[in-house]
Write a structure and sequence with these properties.
Layout: E1 9-10, H1 26-37, E2 47-51, E3 56-61, E4 75-79, E5 86-87, H2 89-95, E6 103-106, H3 108-115, E7 120-121, E8 129-137, E9 140-150, E10 153-156
Length: 168
């Protein structure tokens, strides 16, 4: 089934079930979260993955019939069909606490700049690319968003409408 921007269609489980060569599969989504961020595949056992349009992946806890003709289904989760897959802010805030790899922890000042949408030079000896960004809240590291690390710089991926100036 081709992508229809008016319907949610469940991702095929594996490449063998895929009809559209560019479409992600459930297996590939689970591999991405496991390989990139160390999130256990079992984290998503009760969830289904849906595509609406080209490469906009949504996550839903449950199993409705496919296709589904609704405006929203669960939460936006991942952007595919581009060179590098990008997790959404919502996905990282919801599942980033399961991440064990490619997680960068920011100090208070760094986190304040990050949530305001500012890019900043940062020492990081891990992989380049998208990272889960955390900061201590109530004494525990909590995921605050998605960062893109390239050339010694952490680039805030907080959407413009979600940025906050937290300076007091």
């Amino acid at each position: 089934m081709s992508n229809d921007s008016t319907q949610f269609t469940r991702l095929p489980a594996t490449a063998d079930e895929r009809e559209d060569e560019g479409r992600a599969t459930r297996e590939e989504v689970l591999d991405f979260w496991s390989d990139r961020f160390g999130v256990p595949r079992e984290t998503f056992t009760d969830h289904t993955f849906w595509e609406r349009g080209a490469g906009k992946i949504w996550l839903y806890r449950g199993d409705p019939p496919s296709p589904v003709d609704v405006e929203g289904l669960g939460m936006t989760f991942l952007r595919t069909r581009q060179e590098h897959w990008k997790p959404t802010l919502e996905a990282v805030q919801r599942f980033g606490d399961h991440a064990t790899e490619n997680v960068v922890h920011l100090s208070e000042g760094e986190a304040t700049a990050f949530t305001a949408g500012h890019d900043q030079e940062l020492e990081w000896d891990g992989d380049w690319g998208y990272l889960v960004v955390t900061h201590d809240l109530a004494g525990e590291a909590e995921p605050v968003g998605v960062g893109l690390y390239v050339y010694g710089e952490l680039r805030s991926q907080v959407p413009k409408g979600r940025r906050r100036d937290l300076e007091t």
